[in-house]
């Protein structure tokens, strides 16, 4: 028999699923996979439920319900001063995961190079490799995750078609600052390429401002900016994402969406439109609550002797395990923690190209998008296992 696609067949199951399965098996607290353990806002859920009873059950329009595209445009204006045409510059997708694949499909041809920044989210490399594109990885070095200018410059060349940028960044919690974005924007302009901007954690920053690359000079025409209702409304299971892009690109992203999914659940779209229009207080409350949880976990980890890396945004904080791991690598230590402490985490080496140089082995990622009492219990369990 002929073989199925060898690249996909050999792709390991995602680390998020592996650690969640281990968490269930060992009755562990799941600080691994990034999903909140509280329901999202009840009023948003009610709108989705009502929409099911209101004839919102057949195919939605290809690029999304008009009310959601309008809400995405309004949110671009409210938070970033971006003027966006809801009719031609917004595409609704089934999650940011689909949006990432659709944006890549929209711009790359086989053989094109795509600059990606490690540590990176685990769908980036498979998605671009399956399209025949070639990744050019640039590493940010812990603990400060600063951008290595010379290496970034060197990664761009005549074959570069796009850069993928994730800010606020998973797993590092880094929020790219203006000077770093300016450097990236210069390179994007100089090499005449596109930028796929994964901004799913846009509303989860802690006293630092999230700046979309799209707002920098010359970037409006080159960026595809991706948001996720899952993250902005603590409803990760809904898988509703949205791409904002200039019309010429959005129309091609829409073709990719047409091929991949065609249309996203209409009741969820209606509820997300309602959610996006919530007042500023909602968004401030979301990030304030997440920041409190970050502080709780970070301070607890410090008391246990872990050093943590700065985490200005996202659901995640990275800890250095050197003091406790007794020579074990991050994968081994994370397995030990889930089995012996009853706390699941994610080894940071999972966020590196398996074909690249050896990744750091001394870092694990904790998710703090969990109830304070759960974080306290996790810290107690860690203390017991490590003492
Ligand atoms: N990008 C990043 C950086 C993420 O952490 C996630 C996490 N879930 C996604 C994309 C995917 O988002 P969605 O669930 O909306 O597909
Ligand atoms: N984005 C989530 C995380 O980083 C996981 C999403 C998934 O499991 N695919 O934990």
From TrEMBL:
This is Transaminase. The keyword Phosphoprotein does not apply. It comes from Gluconobacter oxydans (strain 621H). InterPro entries: Aminotransferase_I/II_large, Kynurenine-oxoglutarate_AT, PyrdxlP-dep_Trfase, PyrdxlP-dep_Trfase_major, PyrdxlP-dep_Trfase_small. GO terms for cellular component: cytoplasm. Keywords: Aminotransferase, Pyridoxal phosphate, Transferase. GO terms for molecular function: kynurenine-oxoglutarate transaminase activity; pyridoxal phosphate binding. Its cofactor is pyridoxal 5'-phosphate. Belongs to the class-I pyridoxal-phosphate-dependent aminotransferase family. Its EC number is 2.6.1.-. The keyword Transferase applies. Transmembrane segments: none annotated. Pfam families: Aminotran_1_2. It comes from the Bacteria. Residues 29-382 form the Aminotransferase class I/classII large domain.
